[in-house]
Amino acid sequence: MKTIHQGHLPVRTIVLIGMAFFITAQVHAQNANARLTLTLRNVTLKEFTKIIENSTGYSFIYSEEINIKHRINLKVKEKPLHEILDIVFKDETISYQFSDRYILLQKKKKTKNVSRKFTISGYVTDGTSSETLIGTNIFESHQNQGTTTNPYGFYSITLPEGETSLRFSYLGYATEVCQFILSQDTLMNIRMQGNTQLQEVVVVSDRAEAGAMATQMGSIEIPITQIKSTPSILGEADVMKAIQLIPGVQAGVDGSAGLYIRGGSPDQNLILLDGVPVYNVDHMFGFFSVFTPEAVKKVMLFKSSFPARFGGRLSSVIDVRTNDGDMQKYHGMLSIGLLTSKFNLEGPIVKGRTSFNISARRSYLDLLAKPFMPDDEKYSYYFYDVNAKINHKFSDRSRLFLSIYNGKDHFATKFDENTDNEDGSKMNWGNTIASARWNYIFNNRLFSNTTVAFNNYELGIHSYMTNQFFGSTENKVNRYSADYRSGIQDWSYKIDFDFNPSPIHRIKFGTEYIYHIFRPEVMTSKISDHTSKQVGQEKTYYSINNNPLYAHEISAYAEDNFRLNTRFRLNMGAHLSLFHVQNKSYFSFQPRISARYQLVKDIALKTSYTQMSQYVHLLSSMPISMPTDLWVPVTPKIKPMQSHQFSLGGYYTGIKGWEFSAEGYYKTMRNVLEYKDGVSFFGTSAGWENKVEMGKGRSMGIELMAQKTVGKTTGWLSYTLSKSDRKFAKGGINNGERFPYKYDRRHSINLTVNHQFNDRIDIGVSWAFYTGGTSTIPEEKTAIIRPNDGINNGSGGGWIIPYEPSFTNTSPTIGETNYVEHRNNFRLPASHRLNIGINFNKKTKHGIRTWNISLYNVYNAMNPAWIYRAHNEQGKGVIKKYTLLPIIPSFTYTYKF
Q1: CA torsion sign, 29 to 33 to 38 to 44?
Q2: What stretch of H or E contains 706?
Q3: Which helix (H) or strand (E) holds 332?
C-alpha cells in the first residue's frame, strides 16, 4: 500500500503514474477482470486496501485525511473489483478512480446544488415475439434502486443524473445490462433474449407483488411451465389444478377444479381473465377449468394482503393474463389427447405493429360414444373454449388490446321409443367475455390502462315431449316444451393509473363502474294440440319469477408502495365501493396495509391487514359444481359479506435457488350464508332469502412452504395446518352452536417436483395428502307430528331432514324422519393421490414433437368424493363412501411449429 503525505502528493503521484507505463498490458488486463470472493469483519481502511493489493496487484494512493466513518463488513462472492468498491464506499465520503495499475482515493466533491433527477421508462418485451414480460426486475447498481414491470410490461424509474447502470432480469431470459450517462428523461424499450439455461434471477426490487422480496404477503406467481408440467386428469394441464397444490388452498371434491381458499367457498374467489371477472370457471361439472395454458401468459394468486385495486370477494384473487401474440413471426401448437384436442396460432398482422393470438379446445366424448349408443336412446356431452386477442401498437406511448373468450358445455338426451313418441332435452351453459383495453403513457411517470368489457354467463335448458295418435279419421299431435334460462350479465368500465413520482414511491389509483343484470330464472312452457284437420291453439305459460334484477356497483381505490428506509417497506391503500340494488344502497370502506422488514440480508418479516366486502352469492347445494347454481345479489334482507384478515409471515432466501416461507393467518367473516336446517336449493331461487341464514365464520392456519425455483429440478413442498367453522344466531342453524365448515381440513401436504433429464425427457410428479372434510349424516330416525310446511328449524339442539313427500293441504303430518344431532357431524377419511407425467420431446425439421404419458392416481387410492348412510345385508346401518376417480392413464401428442 502506498501512503502519501499531503505535502508530497503531486511529486509522488507523477512518479508513480509514470512508472505504471512500464507494467505489461497483459498482467493489467488479467487483474482488472479478476473476480473476488471476500469475507471481511470489522476491517479498517488500511487493512482493506492491503487485502485488495495482495489479491489484485493494484496499489492504492490516498492522503492521510482520507478515512472511513465505519469499519468494513463485507461478504461477496465472485464479484469484480469495481462492484466491491461501490459497495464499500457507497455510504462514505470517498470516491475512487482507476489509473492504470493504481486506484486513487479522494474525498467526494461537495456540490451546493442538489443533483437533478430524470426518469427512465419503457416496455420490456421478448426479443423474438415482442410479447410484453410482466414482472421483469430492473435494478440500478449505483443508486441501489429497483422496480418491476407492471401487468402490461411497462416500467418507470427515477434516478439522479450521471453514470447509470441498469440490469434487466427475467426467469428464462439472458440478463441485459445497459450503461450510460443519464442527462435527460429517457425512453428505453428493452428486448430480452430467451435463455434455455435456467439462471437465478436476482430480485432486488420491492416492487414485485409476489415472492419474498414483495411488500405483500400471501401472493404467489404460478409459472406457466409449472402449470403445463403438473400432471392432471387425462393429461389436461389445468390452471386451477396447479393452484390447488399451493398451501392454504383446498380442492373440494377429490379431482374437481373447485377452490376453497383459507376457509372460503368457491364464490368468494375473484377470478379475472385479463382484468374481467369470470363467473363460471368449470367444465364437466367442475373437473376441468375454462383456462387453456396455451393461451395464458401469467397467473397470480392473492390469498391475503390484497392490493387495493381488487375488491368484491372475500377469500382470494386469481389474476390470469393471456398472451398478446407474436409481432415478428407465425408459430403455433396442435395437441391431441384422449379427452380433448386443441390448437394455438399466433403471429403478426402488420409486422412489428399488430399481432393476433387464437387458441381453441374441444372435447369429443360425444363423437367417440355415438357409434356405441342404441338408435332409440342418445346421449351427448362436449365442451369447448375459444380465446382470441388482437394487439395493436399505435406508438411507444399507445397500445390497444381486443380480447374475446367464449366457452360452453353442451349436454343433450333424446329418447325415441317408437315412431309415435319422442322426448328429449338440451342443456347449454357457459361464458362469453369481450373486452377492449387501451394503454397510454401520459409521461414517463404516469401510465394508464382503460378497459371496457362485456361479461355474460348463461344457462339454458330446453326439454320437449311429443306424442302422436293415429286414428281412422284424423291424426293428433300433442307437444309439450319447457325452457329455463338463468344467468348474470355485466357491462363495465374502469381506468387504472400507475404513478411513479420517485424511486421510493409507487402509486396506483383508479375507479370502476359495473352494471349488473341478474336473471336468476326465466321459465316458459308451451302446450300445443294439432290434428290433421285443424291447427290447434298453442298455450304459453310464464313463471312468476321472470323479472331480472338490476344493480349498480361503483368502486375507487388508491395505494402506495413505498420505502421508509433500507429495511422497512410499506404498502398502504384503501378500496371504496358502493352497491345499489332494489332501492337499497350499501357502502364499504376497505383499508389495506402490508409491511415488510428486512431483519438481515436473507431473512424478511411481513405482516398485513385486509378488509374485504362481497355483494353477490352463489346458490348451490351440490358437492360439485353444477350449471344450475345461481348467482344472486344482496337484497334489503341479505347484507353484504365482510371479512377481516390478519397475517404474519417469515421468509428465508439464504440458500441459492431456494425460498422458504412460513405464514400464519386469522380471518373473521360476517354475513356468510348457510341453508336453514332441513332446507336445500336445487334449480330455483324462489324465496331463497327465506331459505338461508346469515351468520359468522372464522378461519385460521399456518402455511409452510419450501420452493426450489432454478435448476434442472424445481418444485415445492408445503404443509398447511388450518381450521374453519361457522356460527349462527341462537335458535337458528345448529341451534346457535359453532360447527366445522364443510371443507374444514386440519392437515394438508403437497409435493410437486419437475425434473429435466435432458432436452428430450422431462418428468412431473405431484403428491397430495389431506385429512377429510365434514358431512352431515343422519345417526337415527324418529317419528314426529308437525305442520306440513316443508321446513323445520329444529328443536332441542337437533335438526330434522324431511324426506316424506309434502301435500298441498296444511293438516299435520305424521312420519319418520332422519335425526341429526348437529350439522357436519361426520368427518370423511383422509385422501391422498400420486400423479406422474413424462414428456418425450424431439426436435424435427419444422418444430418440436412431444409425447406425454400420464398416470392419474398412480396407486389407485379410493378417495371418498362423498359419503352416505346405507344398510348392509343384515339390515344394519353403515356409512359408505363413493369414489369418482380411480387410476386413469392417458397420453397426449403435441406438435409445436
Answers
A1: positive
A2: strand 692-708
A3: strand 331-337
3-state DSSP assignment of residue 359: strand
H-assigned helices in 436-595? none
775, 742 in Cβ contact below 8 A? yes
Residues β-bridged to residue 416: none
The SS3 assignment for 307 reads coil
The closest alpha carbon to 240, from 267, 225, 222, belongs to 222
> Is the distance from CB of 831 to CB of 857 less than 8 angstroms?
no
d(CA 16, CA 794) in angstroms, rounded, equals 99
Q: Which of the 8 DSSP states describes residue 173?
A: B
Share of the chain above pLDDT 90, in %: 36
Contact 366, 382 (CB under 8 A): yes
Distance CA 250, CA 742 (A): 11
Phi, psi of 7 (to 5 degrees): -70, -25
- What is the per-residue pLDDT for 502? 83
The confidence score (pLDDT) of residue 813 equals: 63
Q: Round to whole Å and give the CA distance between 804 and 814.
A: 10
**8 A C-beta contact, residue 520 and residue 545:** yes
Cell numbers placing 734: 345448529
Ramachandran angles phi, psi of 725, nearest 5°: -150, 175
Strands (E), 471-537: 475-502, 505-531
Does the pLDDT of residue 793 top 60, yes or no? no
Q: What is the DSSP string of 637-648?
A: SSPPEEEEEEEE
What is the rounded distance in angstroms from the CA atom of residue 577 to the CA atom of residue 717?
Answer: 38
Measured CA to CA, the distance from residue 438 to residue 451 in angstroms comes to 7
The DSSP secondary-structure symbol of 108 reads P
- Residue 73 φ/ψ, nearest 5 degrees: -125, 120
Half-sphere exposure of 56 (CA within 13 A, CB side): 30
At 883, phi and psi to the nearest 5?
-105, 130
State which H helix or E strand residue 50 sits in. helix 45-56
Q: What is the DSSP letter of 828?
A: P
Backbone angles phi, psi at 240, to 5 degrees: -65, -35
Helix (H, G, I), strand (E, B) or coil at 396: coil
58: confidence class by pLDDT, cuts 50, 70, 90: confident
Are 594 and 565 spatial neighbours (Cβ–Cβ below 8 Å)?
A: no
Grid cell locating 110: 461537495
> Do residues 436 and 400 lie in contact, with contact meaning Cβ atoms separated by under 8 Å?
yes
pLDDT at 26: 36
DSSP class of residue 333 equals E
Q: Residues 471-523: pLDDT tens digits? A: 666 777 788 888 888 889 999 999 999 998 887 889 999 999 999 999 877 77
Q: Among all chains, which residue has been given the C-alpha cell 357491462?
A: 491
Give CA–CA dist 64/717, Å, rounded.
56
Task: Output the CA–CA distances (angstroms, integers) from residue 728 to 349, 774, 797, in the order listed.
Answer: 59, 18, 13
d(CA 494, CA 510): 7
Report strand pairing: 505-531 vs 616-619. unpaired
CA distances for 725 relative to 280, 667, 696, 739, angstroms: 26, 11, 9, 6
- Output DSSP code: residue 858: T
Of 703, 840, 707, 833, the residue nearest 241 (C-alpha): 833
Q: For residues 824 and 866, what is the distance between their CA atoms, to the nearest angstrom?
A: 13
E strands, 366-445, are 377-393, 398-415, 421-443
User: Cα dihedral angle (630, 631, 632, 634), rounded to 10 degrees?
Assistant: 140
Pick the closest to residue 552 from 579, 576, 585, 517 (CA basis): 579
Q: Angle at which helices 45-56 and 81-88 pack, to 10 degrees?
A: 180
Task: Give residues with Cβ within 8 angstroms of 346, minimum separation 6.
Answer: 129, 323, 325, 326, 330, 331, 332, 355, 356, 357, 358
pLDDT tens profile 114-136: 568 888 888 998 888 888 888 88
Higher pLDDT, 65 or 362: 362
